[in-house]
Amino acid sequence: MRWVESGDVRLAVFEEGDPADPTILLVHGYPDTHRVWDEVARRLSDRFHVVRYDVRGAGRSTAPHDHDHYDFDHLAADLAAVLDAIGKPAVHLVGHDWGSLQGWDAVTRPGIRDRVASFTSFGGPGLAQAAQFARHGRRRDVAGQLARSWYIGAFHVPVLPELAWSTFMPGMLKRTMRNNDGVRPRPGHPADTLAKDARNGLWLYRRNMAGRLHGGGDPNVGVPVQLIEAARDPFVSPALLSSLEQWAPRFWHRRIAAGHWAQRSHPDVVARMIAEFADHVDGGEPSRTLRRARVEEGRRAFAERLVVVTGAGSGIGRATARAFAAHGAEVVCADLDLDAATRAADGIEKDLGGTAHAVQVDVADADQMEAFARNIRTSYGVPDIVVNNAGIAVAGPFLDHSLDDWRRTLDVNLWGVIHGCRLFAAQMAERGEGGHIVNIASLAAFAPSRVLPAYSTSKAAVKMLSDCLRAELAGQGIGVSVVCPGFVSTPIAQHATYVGPDLREDAERGLARRGYPPERVAAHILRAVHRDQAVVPVNAEGKIGYLLSRISPGAMRRLARLTGAPGNPHIGR
Fold it and tell me: Are residues 240 and 378 in the same domain?
């Protein structure tokens, strides 16, 4: 630690890493100290010179004698003093909460903006930008943000906030961190000086909020800005954060499935985002997720997304791979038939000018799927979207199904989906930037049939698995959709195994006559990802069957007695 003088205060400054490396300056928020960054600083210090300081009135830094000296002019002077002490021509500035508010203000000031190579903001917008949002944003969005910011008004009340921080508020803050963010107190955070720091920091609100929120300050920012949006932050609305891009021509918007203290709950993710942005600004190649975060008008809906589709060699899988590619995604076409996967990938590149890769994998083989998921991550990165589509059908009465028929159907249709969900969801969760899993079930998931017992059982299990995963993974920003097509004109009837009475000809004729192309199912899949839909029945029979299964299961059971007769095959996709 060393002391840096700034006007009437002494700032406690802490440094880690090699001073010869690029410098990252971490600024904490209210009512924290530099110690809130401990986990992130450890992860950055092997590649960067990491500098932190306690802002005036917090931690080991001294407090000004005059409460007026908590204004932005004095905060900017503190930052300039720290920059002078660092002695670097430019640093990568990172601010959280009030540190972020300070940063937005500081990078507009002569004498500071030229010394900031990049600015990473999370947990708080700039007050000048927030004022523009309050003035020009939609009334509903502004009202929503005002409701989140109720505490600002409370902090302006005389005496009572100081009394609260001297009594019950420290304990409440710790419970909030634990219950909302999953962050447990540890040595250094919250600091032993919390009550004093919080009382001093009230003047940050009292000396800055009124003037700036009524329009003071220049909202335009010239330095590259990375905004990290913590999806579960209760204090800042997505609408307010989305409005910030208009004020920075070079703007990257990234999201993390975390609460307000993301640097504590997800230090690996936050450190990686900071490092990737600093490296890119310094001339390095951007990561896929950083490229995707670059805000550009008119870009395609799934640009820079990596999409994995199993069973992509034909039918719904092939149509889905092409649809994602047409909307800008890089696609991995996976199939048991490598030639079919290669044809699908080649078609994407030749017909659509997209990027696609062909991979052979047996989704029923756990070892192959482990290797497949590992190789995808190594070769292309963590997928943003995974479509577990591969499936087979065995048609015929239950008593004519052999054990092998059951094993093979469940291995592909159910275990294949389990493998895909388990392996790729783990990658998405570790990356911390969300994702989406689409599981392809069928009308057969909720419409029983006397000729598809194994197939229907597997698809019903896929639907329930999807419902369970959606509940579990929502907190990590990973959406899960189950798509349930009715009769679709695909080769599934040609490739099905038939036991008992020969239904092949009727099944193939029936699906061909239905005339519902797989491309329409693919459109529903893209919409499900875009809207984060839970259950998506597709086409008329799929929607009617889903509705009947919910309002009259008995009718569905009676209808099942009719399915499977000659001329009425029931193969769901």
Answer: no
Locate 97 and state its tokens. 């909460």
| Residues of the chain under the 70 pLDDT cut | 211-216, 295-299, 491-494, 501-514, 563-573
DSSP structural state of residue 189: B
Range of the domain at 254: 2-293
CB-based contact 486:538 (threshold 8 Å): yes
Q: What SS3 state is found at 355? A: strand
What's the chain's Rg over C-alpha atoms? 28
Helix (H, G, I), strand (E, B) or coil at 33: coil
Active site residue 70: no
Kindly state whether residues 49 and 94 are assigned to the same domain: yes
Burial class of residue 264, CB neighbours in 10 A (0-12, 13-18, 19+):
buried
Q: What is the DSSP string of 277-293?
A: HHHHHTTPPPPHHHHHH
Q: Which of 269, 293, 317 is the last residue of a domain?
A: 293
Number of domains in the chain: 2
User: What is the Cα–Cα distance from 431 to 258, expressed in whole angstroms?
Assistant: 12
521 and 398 part of one domain: yes
| C-alpha to C-alpha distance for 385 and 428, rounded to whole angstroms | 9
CB 349 within 8 A of CB 355: yes
- The Cα 429–Cα 493 span in angstroms is 37
pLDDT in tens, 487-523: 887 766 667 777 876 666 666 565 566 678 999 999 9
Q: What is the spatial distance between Cα 331 and Cα 287, in angstroms, rounded to a whole number?
A: 17
Same domain for 118 and 31: yes
DSSP single-letter state for residue 186: B
- Which position has the token pair 């029945």? 537
How far apart (Å, rounded) are the C-alpha atoms in residues 463 and 289?
Answer: 30
pLDDT at 569: 44
Helix, strand, or coil (residue 343): helix
Q: How high is the pLDDT of residue 510?
A: 56
Same domain, 72 and 215: yes
Domain end call among 233, 264, 293: 293
- Is the Cβ–Cβ distance between 305 and 329 less than 8 Å? yes
What is the predicted pLDDT for the residue at 259?
94
Q: What's the predicted TM-score (pTM) here?
A: 0.88
Indicate which residue of 455, 498, 516, 546 is catalytic: 455
CATH number at residue 343: 3.40.50.720
The pair of three-digit structure tokens given for residue 544, joined into one six-digit string: 């009617």
Dihedral of the alpha carbons of 153, 155, 156, 160, in degrees to the nearest 10:
120
Tell me the per-residue pLDDT of 328-384, one tens digit each, with 9 for 90 and over.
999 999 999 999 999 999 999 999 999 999 999 999 999 999 999 999 999 999 999
CATH classification at residue 90 = 3.40.50.1820
Exposed e or buried b for every residue in 287-306, given b needs 16+ CB within 10 A?
bebbebbbbeeeeeebebbb
Which residues contact residue 137 at a Cβ distance below 8 angstroms, ignoring those fewer than 6 apart?
145, 239, 240, 243
Q: Which two tokens stand for residue 354?
A: 């997209």
**Residue matched to tokens 């099905």:** 496
